[in-house]
Design brief:
InterPro entries: HET. It holds the Pfam family HET. This is HET-domain-containing protein. The chain contains twelve helices and 26 strands. By secondary structure, the protein is of the alpha+beta class. It folds into two domains: about 250 residues, no CATH class; about 200 residues, no CATH class. It has a ten-stranded mixed β-sheet with strand order 4-2-1-5-3-6-9-10-11-12, with helices on both faces. Strand 20 and strand 21 form a beta hairpin.
């Protein structure tokens, strides 16, 4: 395999020439830039114009209807900046009008200046950066733009991921690795290089380690970044070791080697594969960090909408109609109890994992071997409710065992288990359950409790129990 023995200097012309070559090659050889990204919110409301003849002058631009604008999107981590510093460079109600006419490039933090530099080097005149293109501390504008995130990244010509930047001030073009190599010659006369790659502490590093350099980087622990990455057609990852190009055809390294993609984009090729992909995304997303817990239901909404549209099905709060029953059978991961997120009352239903903080995992259920409850469905009139029958537990009790409660028969034999999302009541006779599916005389269940409204229940846990120990009690109730 042919590759560079030594990486180009961090800001050398050769490095930017490689970026332009990647884009041209992908445009000509792949279909990454030709897929159907149409949506009602395809273009951002505002873009940053970086093509002014005076490089120190930037301005905001508002695309017009049917405008065909090629732009770059920046995926980055804000970091812990003071509010005073944010107000120096963010777009606000106070400066939005002047920014439409022009403002100084020099007020931007280093990460943004690097993004402008890369955009210009790629020959593109427009750039999208959240804090510049969304009016900050304006709740109405934020809510409006948050619903458009799907279009922002799906319609971008390319995404720049500031992978190495811990915050907006850090920048991402410099590298923390050096190459030392010697030219050697084999007995056959063939010449080759032997290289040693080290970081700033002279420790050996693996130059082609996408998992360590990108997947484990702080940027990719952020919840918002997941949908930014999945929705993007092509992404250039600027790690602190080297650049990586990622598109639907794989991952390519700055030293010209090719890696197998960790995040394949072709995932709608059958029910089982799609279901597994949805579970993978949901579990991974639930473990990522958010500055505001209440963004949990928003930071993946664009990706959720894209998947639902591709499937031709409804989705509500991370639960897809095509896989409704399997999607409902989630549980908290690890030993720590979850807690309710402080949404306004009635915003997120209890049956959605988005209502709670912390990581989740789905029950491991064989595909194609479960009889699902066809009475369980989304409520057409009440978006937050599921319609279903519920039952009561019969001739059994429960006993705390590790993170779960064992369901015991009258002879203390184990007949199932329950894992609570939050708190357990300690008395199985006060609980109700929804049968989600049945396999080999065992029920997969949601544990629910009544609210103050008659015929209305909320989820409190999940479990499995032998069918002999549940009796159907009420029909067509609502789980909210």
């Amino acid at each position: 395999m042919i590759s560079f023995p030594v990486l180009p200097e961090a800001e050398s012309p050769a490095r930017f020439a490689l970026l332009r070559a990647w884009l041209r090659w992908c445009d000509k050889s792949h279909d990454c830039n030709n897929h159907d990204a149409k949506s009602e919110t395809a273009l951002p409301t505002r873009l940053l114009y970086v093509g002014n003849p005076n490089p120190d002058v930037l301005s905001l631009y508002c695309p017009k209807e049917n405008d065909k604008v090629k732009y770059i999107a920046l995926s980055h981590c804000w970091g812990k900046l003071t509010k005073e510093r944010k107000r120096e460079f963010c777009t606000t109600n106070d400066n939005i009008k002047t920014r439409l006419n022009g403002f100084s490039f020099l007020i931007l933090p280093k990460t943004f200046r690097d993004a402008v530099r890369v955009t210009r080097e790629l020959g593109i005149q427009y750039l999208w950066i959240d804090s510049l293109c969304i009016i900050q501390w304006n709740q109405k504008d934020w809510k409006h733009e948050a619903t458009r995130m799907e279009g922002v990244f799906a319609s971008a010509y390319c995404t720049i991921a500031a992978t190495s930047a811990v915050d907006s001030e850090a920048g991402f073009l410099k590298r923390n690795v050096s190459n030392e190599c010697i030219l050697a010659q084999a007995a056959s006369g063939r010449q080759f290089y032997i290289c040693a790659d080290t970081d700033g502490s002279n420790n050996h590093v693996d130059i082609d380690d996408f998992n360590d350099h990108v997947e484990k980087a702080p940027l990719n622990t952020r919840a918002w970044v997941m949908q930014e990455r999945v929705l993007s057609r092509r992404t250039i990852h600027f790690s602190d070791k080297q650049m990586y190009w990622e598109c639907g055809e794989g991952v390519y390294c700055e030293n010209l080697t090719r890696l197998e993609s960790y995040f394949r984009k072709k995932f709608f090729m059958g029910d089982r594969r799609t279901m597994e992909f949805i579970h993978f995304l949901s579990e991974a997303y639930s473990k990522r960090h958010l500055t505001e817990d209440t963004d949990r239901c928003v930071a993946i909404s664009g990706l959720e909408a894209r998947i639902a549209r591709a499937r031709g099905c409804q989705s509500r709060y991370g639960i897809f109609q095509d896989f409704l029953h399997r999607n409902l059978l989630w549980q908290r991961s690890g030993h720590k109890k979850t807690k309710w997120i402080g949404y306004e009352p009635g915003i997120i239903p209890s049956w959605s994992w988005m209502a709670y903080d912390g990581g989740i995992q789905f029950m491991d259920i064989p595909f194609g071997e479960v009889d699902w409850n066809d009475k369980l469905r989304f409520n057409k009139e009440h978006k937050h409710a599921l319609v279903t029958d519920i039952g009561v537990f019969w001739k059994c009790s429960m006993e705390k065992r590790d993170t779960r409660y064992a369901i015991l028969d009258l002879s203390k034999g184990k007949r199932g288990w329950i894992q609570y999302d939050i708190e357990a009541s300690g008395d199985l006779h006060t609980e109700w359950c929804v049968v989600v599916g049945r396999r080999n005389k065992k029920y997969y269940i949601l544990v629910v409790r009544p609210t103050s409204v008659d015929g209305e229940y909320r989820r409190v846990g999940v479990g499995r129990i032998q069918s002999d120990y549940v009796v159907r009690q009420r029909l067509d109730v609502r789980v909210v």
